[in-house]
Amino acid sequence: MECQEISMKAVNTTVKNGGDDLFKNRLLSYLKEQFPFKIDDIKPIRKQVYLVSAQERVFILKGFSSYHRLKLQEAFTASLINEGFAKTYAFYEFAKEPPLFYDRTYYGCLEYIHPSEDSFSYHLKRDRLEGLELLQAFHDTSEKVVSRYQTVVPAFKQAEKWRERASLFLNNLPVIRYFVQKEIINELLSWADWSLKGIEEEAWLFQSGRQVILHGDVAHHNFLRAKNKTLYLLDFDLIAKATPHSDYLQYANRILPYMKWSFDDLLRFPIIKQYMEEKGFIYALAFPTDIFREWNRVIRERSYLDPVKIRPVLDLTVGQFAERQRFIRALKKAAED
Q: What is the DSSP string of 11-71?
């Protein structure tokens, strides 16, 4: 979903062109017909996500590609809240005759959580820890409801997903070679190979044991610091069934750049440390999934010739290379012990 960063900065996003403005006005007219109360205004946050101001209430309007996706999100968030996980948004049913359907898109109405000026950031150690603890609480709750969603939530296959990502990266090498020297590329590929072989040897780690519903996208913008300082978890569009390992791998990958890829500092997070005692998790930490993902994205979007958009990808690949190389060496040493 990525009902992301519902901040006042995001809310003030301006419409880029007349076409967007026309669509917004038409959508506003449609909403005025559908709701039993007066709609004052809608402001775009990002594609298919709007802040709606109405009489005595404010809420988020979020678009979904299918009715099934909308209903799954409604049901899953309701299940979380009913089981005691209150640190997320609720869905509302305001329309006279739901579902809301406009321009081949289904829309849901989500609770608006007033953001704090002190926003969540992976730059801060306390936020990294608090986000990790919230993710663990989410898993504790999603474990209770996983059986209800056996037939509607897909199983997550970590190694398969990464093999596909690596394959696409290989296909994109003719472009990537214009930006990154071959020695670094070869090193990245060797890390991926070592990681995938190790995961295959320890495949049981991702196939058995405790089953939860994964969040699937633990980017910083899916954590929201509310005005009352409570931290909330957002965006469940990428949920899948698996062991908790995959969410923690992704979380580690997200926070490590802010920790200078320190193996020792990662061990200081008790939640992650317990997983680092498993060899399969150590192997998986070596996979350069973020680098592969970002190169595949900029090539897919054809934005690699934009200096602004390619700069963070080059920093991730080249600028952090030496720190990451030390991290991989520490992983390999830990795998041998």
A: HTPPP-SHHHHHHHHHHHHHHHHH-SS-EEEEEEEETTEEEEEETTEEEEEEEESSHHHHH
Residue pair 243/212 in contact (Cβ under 8 Å)? The answer is: yes
- 230 phi and psi angles, rounded to 5 deg: -70, 140
List the domains of the chain with CATH numbers: 8-111 (3.30.200.20), 125-336 (3.90.1200.10)
Q: How many CB atoms lie within 10 A of CB 129?
A: 15
pTM value > 0.85: yes
Tell the residue number behind the tokens 């900029």, with chain if given.
Answer: 298
Angle subtended at Cα 20 by Cα 17 and Cα 22, rounded to the nearest 5 degrees: 110
pLDDT band (50, 70, 90) for residue 95: confident
What is the C-alpha separation between 303 and 296, in angstroms, rounded? Answer: 11
Confidence band for 18, pLDDT divided at 50, 70 and 90: low
Partnered with residue 108 across adjacent β-strands are 62
Tokens of 104: 């081949």
Which parts of 197-321 are beta strand (E)?
212-214, 223-225, 231-233, 240-242
Instruction: Convert the pLDDT of each residue in 99-124 to its tens digit.
Output: 999 999 999 999 999 999 999 999 99
* Cα–Cα distance measured from residue 253 to residue 257, given in angstroms and rounded to the nearest whole number: 8
Are the beta carbons of 212 and 294 closer than 8 angstroms? Answer: no
> Average pLDDT of the chain?
93
